[in-house]
C-alpha cells in the first residue's frame, strides 16, 4: 500500500511537470514567455523524471516522450509511454473488462546466469510452454535450456564445435524431444536428455546455401518424427523431415570417443522451393491457419503465406509486396491478424 501511495504521488508530480512544460512552450510560441530559473528544458525534464521513477524508466523512452510533446502540444501522450507501454482504447469498451495497464517492475525475474562469453551474442530465444522451459542459442555455438522449477531457474548448456560457422536460429522438436539449431552450413540436433556425451549431438551436412532461420512445423499426429522449416540467403525455403530412426541407427555406428555424429544430408527427406529473391529473414508455421509464412527483404516477394504443400509443388503461392521488404512477422489468434515489420 505504501509503494502504491508513493507511485501515485510520483505520477501526480510527473503530470504536473508535463502540464507546466506545455504551458511554458505555448507561451514561448506566442512570444509571451520570459525565461527564468523555472524554465523546463530537456535536461531538467530528464533529471526530474528520473528522480520520480528511478531505474524503472529507460533513457530512450524519456527522449521519445519529450519529443512527442514538443511536436504536438495539443495531443499529449499517455503517462504509460514514459515506461515504454503503448495503449489504444476503444470508446465502446466497458471499463470493467479493461485490462490493468500498470506493469510492476519489481515482479520481473532476471536470469543472471551467464551463458555466453565476451564477443558472443544471443541469436535466438524459444519458449517451450509444454515443458516449461526456455531455449537460447548464441552466435558462437552455446545452446542453453533454462528450466523453471519451484520459482527458480537452472540451466544445462552445450557447446557445439563449429568450423567458423555461426548459429543463426534454433527451435524445439516436440516429438523427438531434441533441440534443433541451424548454422551457416549445417543443421545441429542436440539430445539434451542424453547422459552419455558421445550421443549428445548430431550434425546434418552439407547444406548448399547459408541457413538463416528455422521453425518447427507443429502437428498433432504424435508420430515419432518432426519437420522443420528453414530459410537461406538465396531465397529458398526448406522442409526437412526427421525421424527417430535417423538418430538411433547413427548412435550405434558412432565412434566411442566422439561427441558429434555427422549425418549426410542426402539421407534426409528435404524439399525446397525458391520463394524470394533475397535473404529469408524468418519462417514460421502458423498452426491456427494451417499455413506457413516466410518473409524477406525482397521488394517483390516480401511475404508469403500459404499451405505447406506449396513447397512440394510449383503451384502459385499467396505473396505480398512491401516496399523495402519484411524483416519480421507474427500472428495474433485473438485478433485474427498478421502483423509485419519492415
From TrEMBL:
The keyword Ion transport does not apply. Coiled coil: none annotated. Keywords: Repeat. PANTHER family: WD REPEAT-CONTAINING PROTEIN 64, WD40 REPEAT DOMAIN 95. It comes from Menura novaehollandiae (superb lyrebird). This is WDR64 protein.
